[in-house]
Every structure is written in structure tokens, then in C-alpha cells.
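hi! just following up on the protien thing from before. the input was this:
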Amino acid sequence: MTAGIFLTDDELDMLSDAELRSLRDMWIRAVEAENRKLNHDGPIDKVDTMICQAHKIARILEGRRNS
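and the predicted 3d structure came back as:
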């Protein structure tokens, strides 16, 4: 998977907890790498979208823990 591929909520729900944690960690690394590449005048939309995907994964994991 590359940082340009985003999964829907339904697709994320089908993944196991371990897969979600791995995917979340991948997104965190991708955001960190993208932040290093951007200068202060660069676009942040891509990083914002990547962060949203990581947050979505975190919410799913939290919901599963609370179930």
C-alpha cells in the first residue's frame, strides 16, 4: 500500500486489529516522511488527508476495545 491509497470505513472495518495497528503505524511514518519533505510554503492537504486516515483507524480500534 502506498500513501496515496485510502481505505473506506467499510474496508477498514474488515481488517483485524493487528492489520489496523500496522496500517496506522504506516500512516504515521508516511505523515512524518511527508512533513520532512514539505517546506513551510508547501501544500498541507496531503498530510491532512493522511492524518485523517490514521485518526479513522484509531477510532475503529478504540471502538473495538470498548465493545
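Residues 9-66 form one domain.
The longest helix spans residues 45-66.
cheers
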